[in-house]
Amino acid sequence: MESSIGSASPPEGRFIGDSDRGDQHSHGVSWSAVVGGAFVAAAISLIMLALGAGFGLSAVSPWSNVGASASALGTAAIIWLIVTQCISCALGGYLAGRLRTKWVAVHTDEVYFRDTANGFLVWAVGLVITVTFLVSSAASMAGTERDASNERAAQAKASTDPGGYFVDRLFRSDTPGSLPVDVSARAEAGRILANTLRQKDSVPADDAYLAKLVAAKTFLSPSDAQNRVSQVSADARQAEDVARQTAARLLLWIFVALLIGAFSASFAATIGGRQRDHVKLI
Q1: Which of 127, 133, 136, 206 is such that its CA lies 20 to 30 A from the CA of 89?
Q2: Eight-state DSSP code of residue 60
Q3: Is the dihedral of CA 61, 66, 72, 76 positive or negative?
Q4: Average model confidence (pLDDT) for the chain?
Q5: Predicted local confidence at residue 94, as pLDDT
Q6: Same domain for 132 and 197?
């Protein structure tokens, strides 16, 4: 007589091997399979993210002088994000379903639910592992930067701060090679400009003071200094709006990709579980 590890699923509404063993109350979560699938999903996700970065799909920035422009956040980057979630989560969920403990005397509907739940747990645990790794890596990089000298850190921050460009525009002189504006004036102008961007409408008193400061440092006429302040403030506000819209769009697509990843892991776990139950020992 042919003995089998598992046979074809019985008709719907019946139990699998009622006479073999009574494990109706067995654990519904195979944590060893879930954790293994989660690590696989996290590893594949990081590999594909690195590959996407190599292709330049992660070099996205709303600022024209830092990374790629906002328009670079196009179809290719979105598709790669979704494909990464589909492949990594599906592989992790499939392994969890295939490696789980076989439930013999469990209702077929309950088996399907448990496989789906295990796949969802693979997605959740894998997401936590990936986020933890990325956050720890970012914290380590931040700690390395703090170990540098204060002067070099200040120079690096000034060179990569997008808001510094607008401060430069405020104090730009028509005669190249003129004396640079002192640091205190630039810092004060940057704080005023930042406060202006936080407000819904411009503050007249701040605009008037900033125009006087620009006129004193650049020898512009009061009217020209006021026009420059108004133009720079408008451009900075527009750049901030573009950055906000880009971030909102990116977060929306991350949300969609994560939902697709959760579905992929859950569905793949049911496939792996069915194949696990149908394996026969000849």
Answers
A1: 136
A2: B
A3: negative
A4: 76
A5: 95
A6: no
